[in-house]
Amino acid sequence: MTEMATRTLLRIDSRCGWRWRAALPVSYAGLARGQSTTAAAEPQRPEMKTEVPGPKSLQLLKELSAVQESGAVQFFADYERSFGNYIADVDGNLMLDMYTQIASVPLGYNHPRVIQAFKDPKNQAAFVNRPALGLFPSGDHVQRMRQTLMSVAPPGLSNVQTMACGACSVEHGQKAMFMSYQRRKRGGEGPSKEEMESCLKNQAPGAPNLAILSFKDGFHGRTMGALAVTHTKWIHKLDFPAPDWPVADFPKLRYPLDQFTRENEQEERRCLNMVRDLMATWEKKGCPVAGIVSETVQCEGGDNYASASFFQGLQDIAKENGASLMLDEVQTGCGATGKFWAHEHFNLRSPPDVVPFAKKMLTGGFYHSDEQRPTESFRIFNTWVGDPSKMALLEAVLEVIKKDGLVDNSKVIGDYMLNGLLDIQNSFPAILSGVRGLGTLAAVDCPDAATRDKIITLMKNKGVHAGTCGTATLRLRPTLTIQRKHVDIFLDIFRGVLKDLK
Length: 502
Known about the structure:
- The chain is α/β, with parallel strands linked by helices.
- It is built from 16 helices and 17 strands.
- The strands form 5 sheets. The chain has a 4-stranded mixed beta sheet. It has a 4-stranded parallel beta sheet with strand order 8-7-9-10, with helices on both faces.
- The protein is globular.
- One of its GO terms (molecular function) is 4-aminobutyrate:2-oxoglutarate transaminase activity.
């Protein structure tokens, strides 16, 4: 293996940003325990009978298209036959899934412990009766919250608000930031009669002119408030009205990072200075920034990373301007980065104010500081505000994560996978560049979208399902139970596809 391939991007240094270090040995004891999370029923290798999509998928797609727009459908899955790290389709194909429903399958398909939770009689009421949690929570709801969400709360945050999905978690988190900003402006006093009446007409002072600062290439969801801070693809935003809120550049780092230290530090300083300037500009416009929102890793926008020092600087700017900081962990939370929450890598001086979650956490919601807690009921509310059935499943998932050391597994297997990707990049420098990752979140760039999409298609037809992001990036989002044997299969097929492409 080349010198480049034996160095793995994994850890964030709080003083000088990213650093390289030698890969950890793959003999970590947790891996042996982790293997127990994928039972013997898991296939040994991919099995392909047709191209993907196959004839049955194509027929079903034709039928589905008769009743709804379905152009995004890639194939129809057979979830009864899917197991562990493998997804089956209706045509009998069996693929190693390195994308996992857009990073949302924590333990793999049909995990025995999760199925056990589904069958457990004590959980049946949660599945059968979906209560309006804001009004009529069940008697065991508090205990379940402690055993699940609060047991993995980001350090320093002791409040959580459950929701249904990532977008609504971000959107309600924005509301929390607006409310806390206005409470500070009122000096802790309640709203005036004028504010209560004017807000019903969408007018000031009850509907204040406030902004949220976000970043180019950021993605935070498809509901209207979340779309206001989403800046990835036009298809997400076209035809929808959006507020005039500030949008800053997110750092575009150059790789390998150890060869561009000075340039990357300059790029991050430039972006932080832009944040400062935009906040001052919007203040002068009479539309002060109440909050800053950023993903810990810009996932949909191209797997874009920034250093710990960048996020520390971002938090400093928020505090200097009396704004809240939201770090979106919808895709990066739940252990995939080698820590339970990606922002734990950043060594922030204090916790973020708002941390939305969803995907691998199975339920949506956001953790928040005391200052973000509403002072009146019904301010952050909907019919269900979450789903207790998902809490029952999350309880089983967290039990396995803790018992089998799967957060550490992500760190170790992530090291191994990144080493392999770097080695392949070194063999195909005309096709691949910018290998990067944190834990098992990993990505590599291709020369253009057409090349990337061809690689994705060829890999799928050889039995590996991977994802895309940005304009020409291939991204990997495996389960927490991924093992070295799965990585070897992926790397072998990936290398073979690139040889054929070359």
